[in-house]
Amino acid sequence: MQYLDNYLQSKGGYDYTNVKRNELMKAQGFKEMPFTKTGTTIVGVLFDGGVVMAADTRATAGSIVADKNCEKLHTLAPNIWAAGAGTAADLHHQCAHFNAKLKLQRLNLNRQSRVNEVITKLTSKLFPYRGHIGVALIIGGIDCNGPQLASVSPHGNYVYHPFQSMGSGSLAALGILEAKFQDGLTKQQAIDLAIEAIEAGIFHDMGSGSNVDVVAITKDGVDYKRNIRQYNAKSYQRQVPYDFPINNTPALKKYQFDIEKQELTEVGQEMEIIE
Amino acid sequence: MSGIFEYNGGSIVGMKGKNCIAMACDRRFGQQMSTITTNYQKVFKIQDNILLALSGLNSDIHTFYALMEKEINLYNLKENRKMKPTTFANLVASALYERRFGPFFVTPIVAGLENGKPILATYDSIGCKSDLDDFQVGGTGGNYIYGACEAFFKPDLSPEELEEVIGQSLVSGCDRDSLSGWGGVVYVLTEQKLTVKILKTKQT
């Protein structure tokens, strides 16, 4: 009965019912599986009239590549995008949550979302969790105050700067940005600079790889180029493809469930069954 | 002691084909180095067009499956209609993320057919959904099955061919993992039917 009461009263937010059990298991010596992290290189570059953001597309779980082509550029509002590094689940769910929160506010107030509003909301959410929500974001957008670019760290710190890079490949990317950034770039120059910075991250950092995604935000709209550069495409065709003969894998039993008739039958005679 | 995910062992794999999807799992249920049974179910039919495969700590597999059954039953009663596979995939992600700081030790794979189009999604233990690939793996033997899948998989396979490819990938991968194996089960779902094939493997 108490379970029912708990269920009916659940008001959303995080559920901490498993924490005690998990802590006990860790105390007994078990190690957890690593969460999927976006090892990542992400950059943002401010130019004359807008902002460009770019990201690589590799997601890692420990040293295995979990996703070869994941999306790290998320929409928070039609005029504000976020590039994310850190724990992939946190990034995905927090960005989805803020997207919905901002949309609700736009519907209530009938005003465009502003970048500083996003920064305030994000940092207010992240600070109380003391860095345990592992999101490191670069927020870029254009609003009534012009184009703006800021980065937010998992502990709730934020910095406004004309060029930013975050993630494990940030140092490689920062080298390119520090050397080649100037004020008053054009849109194409900013895109080229961002791609070059991500390239440096992809080649020098093992946590970043695969392809480059770019988004350019101006007051005329958003230009999202998914996989604008591809470095890890399969370049060979297998000469002799594997073609398995049908019904060749030996089986003990085979069943068939017909969906329309909702009937389960055992299939046996047509295939080779080894005793 | 090793990791929590290696306590019970087990491997799962899902693949997309042409208007069909396939899931396969091994059948071992163990406690570290001992094997308790060789007929443990790890792939569950949530709805006629949705399959859920779970690997990880077996008690959490059971709990998480019960939680998903409850959610889909309540949905059917409240909304008086079936749940779409993409909706279910998002539901699994949210249910896992809800327990971000006290996670279930499971790595699910969701597979379904939405208007004939195959849907396949995998998650880490806290709900990071990854649905852009044509095959997904999970469990202790997952990394070995990745290798076999990269070699054997081709896009747009028919249901019969897909059954062979996924069966061979599972068996090849599990043969290299001491904590998975003791048989395999292959589920192939098309719009018309679901076929379940229990494979014969090495008995070690």
TrEMBL record, chain A:
It is found in: Cytoplasm; Nucleus. Keywords: Cytoplasm, Hydrolase, Nucleus, Protease, Proteasome, Threonine protease. GO terms for biological process: proteolysis involved in protein catabolic process. It comes from the Eukaryota. Its main location: cytoplasm. InterPro entries: Proteasome_bsu_CS, Proteasome_sua/b, Proteasome_suB-type. One of its GO terms (molecular function) is threonine-type endopeptidase activity. The keyword Nucleus applies. GO terms for cellular component: cytoplasm; nucleus; proteasome core complex. It holds the Pfam family Proteasome. Component of the proteasome, a multicatalytic proteinase complex which is characterized by its ability to cleave peptides with Arg, Phe, Tyr, Leu, and Glu adjacent to the leaving group at neutral or slightly basic pH. The proteasome has an ATP-dependent proteolytic activity. Belongs to the peptidase T1B family. PANTHER family: METALLOPROTEASE TLDD, PROTEASOME SUBUNIT BETA TYPE-7. Component of the proteasome complex. This is Proteasome subunit beta. It comes from Paramecium octaurelia.
Automatic annotation (TrEMBL), chain B:
Its main location: cytoplasm. Component of the proteasome complex. It is found in: Cytoplasm; Nucleus. Component of the proteasome, a multicatalytic proteinase complex which is characterized by its ability to cleave peptides with Arg, Phe, Tyr, Leu, and Glu adjacent to the leaving group at neutral or slightly basic pH. The proteasome has an ATP-dependent proteolytic activity. It comes from Paramecium octaurelia. This is Proteasome subunit beta. Signal peptide: none annotated. Keywords: Cytoplasm, Nucleus, Proteasome. GO terms for biological process: proteasome-mediated ubiquitin-dependent protein catabolic process. Pfam families: Proteasome. One of its GO terms (cellular component) is proteasome core complex, beta-subunit complex. The keyword Secreted does not apply. Belongs to the peptidase T1B family. It comes from the Eukaryota. The lineage of its organism: Eukaryota, Sar, Alveolata, Ciliophora, Intramacronucleata.
